[in-house]
Amino acid sequence: MTNPMNSRSRAARWAGLAGAGAALVAVCATTAPAFAATTGTRPSPVGSALHGPAPVDRQALARLMAPDDVANGTMVRITGPGVHLTETTGQLSRDPAAYFRIGSITKLFTSTVVLQLVGEGRFAMDTPVQEILPGTLPAGWAPITVRRLLSHTSGLGMPCVAPENPGSPTPAAVVAALTDPKCPAPQSPVTVQQYNGMNYFLLGLVVEKTTGHPYADEVQRRVARPLGLRHTYLPRPGDTSIPAPSLAAPVPDDPWAWAEGGMISNAPDLDRFLRALLGGRLLAPAQQAELFRMPALSATAKVPFSMGGLVRGELDDGTPVWGKTGSKAGGVNGLFGTQDGKRVLVYSYTAVGDDADRQRRRAEDFIEAAF
């Protein structure tokens, strides 16, 4: 796809994106974004001479937002220097501040809090989670560091038994199902980077153990309130409601996804959050660098995640694009930005069916049109 307003090809080097489902999905199976790994082991060059994003391809956006066999209603928000648009099609709220379930985009809030705790010296990136959560994992398991949880290089599998109270499992019950003696131990040594929501259940427990406060309270204290994110929160267990106006008609919610994928937000709040995160307002310099550093295993991964839990895409001129996808309650969402945080894309649509390949292509097309 080429924008006639700019000679740069818009093709992006990634294989595709799939909405990473949230949480009891994580108890059964998780579908991850599938960018092609283009980065190897090098850190991304902060401040390097990149061409930057092209003008927004509004014609492409109009085609993508027309209701079709992928989505029957779509919201897109793109902001940056000289760009500020929010458009909605189909049976979605026209309110630019409408709420929606963000699914696995929640993981970016979790990783932000964890990296802040690292910056405060509460623990290190290479501290084994077994030291922070003694007795939580079986004694025979090899050490699993915070770094490996954040970057999906832990080797953890999925629970092979149902958690206690599967309709509304507690985080501890989810982890107990993962560590049941019937389930296999993690891969060791780890040879692949494999997206797994279980990593972020453990990180949520790390936050609570380290701070002595509920995960939801730490997200509010450390991220939401300082940034003025008045529409961003984690519902209480068992609360399947969503405030009005909601982006789409409320539907029955699936089990509580907690630190893996349970939060509610809106497009303006997500825009402000990612802009602050990529722009260096939430983390100390050492932890900010982790956001853009790619682990060695990402070189061969279908899902190239950074040390800080961000997915990395790369436009054909070398411009990196960072973010996360998520899906929950029938909505498929994405949040991406340029490395300096100056242009940000938020999208959400109501999916028609569950064809993962079509959803991946749709995500690629949105990113190419926006950047």
Provide a descriptive summary of the structure in words.
The chain is α+β, with helices and mostly antiparallel strands. It has one domain: 3-Layer(aba) Sandwich (Beta-lactamase), CATH 3.40.710. Helix content is 30%, strand content 15%. It has helices at residues 24-28, 58-65, 106-119, 129-132, 146-150, 171-178, 198-211, 215-227, 258-261, 267-278, 285-292, 356-370, and strands spanning 12-13, 71-80, 83-90, 99-101, 264-266, 311-315, 320-328, 331-338, 344-351. The strands form two sheets. Strands 1-6-7-8-9-2-3 form a seven-stranded antiparallel beta sheet, with helices on both faces. A two-stranded antiparallel sheet has the order 4-5. A hairpin with a 2-residue loop joins strand 2 (71-80) and strand 3. Helix 2 (58-65) runs antiparallel to helix 12 (356-370).
